[in-house]
Sequence to fold (180 residues):
Amino acid sequence: MKRIIALLLLMSIAVASLAFAEDTIAAGENANGKKVYFASPMFNQAEKNFNLEIARVLEDAGYQVFLPQRDGIEAALLEGKTEDELIRMIFELDAGEVQKADIVMMNVDGRVPDEGACVELGIAYGCGKRCYGIKTDTRSIERGLDLNPMISGCMIQIFKNYDGDQLKEELKQYLSQNEL
Fold:
């Protein structure tokens, strides 16, 4: 039920962001910009390590990457805050960074992708950002589909390889010949 609510929230944020997208495009957003927001779960050390490795691949290819686990609000700033204050601080920072980005790269691993990353994707798609995915996980939510169409439909391309090291090499190879 929580996942359904998160996906509904994703859709409503995307619709609400369309007006912002028109303003951003009218303001002349750089179509070849290289600022990337990396949306991903970050709840265990393996996820955090993989996120850092993918961020490094992007940075080595010349992209400026905002990685919330590394570049987000410092833990010391969260000390003594109420739950409402924490929610507001984290949401405003991350949503603002999504809006500043040219590109969103989303890790879609998991039986279903991380709810927060889905909201970030919805904001990005609604703002007209270029959206990409990476997938190393064999689990899927939809029968006969590799990923929920409401997520994959937002993305220009999803880089898939069930071997994370091989996925990084394929991403490096792609970036050596193409821009996101």
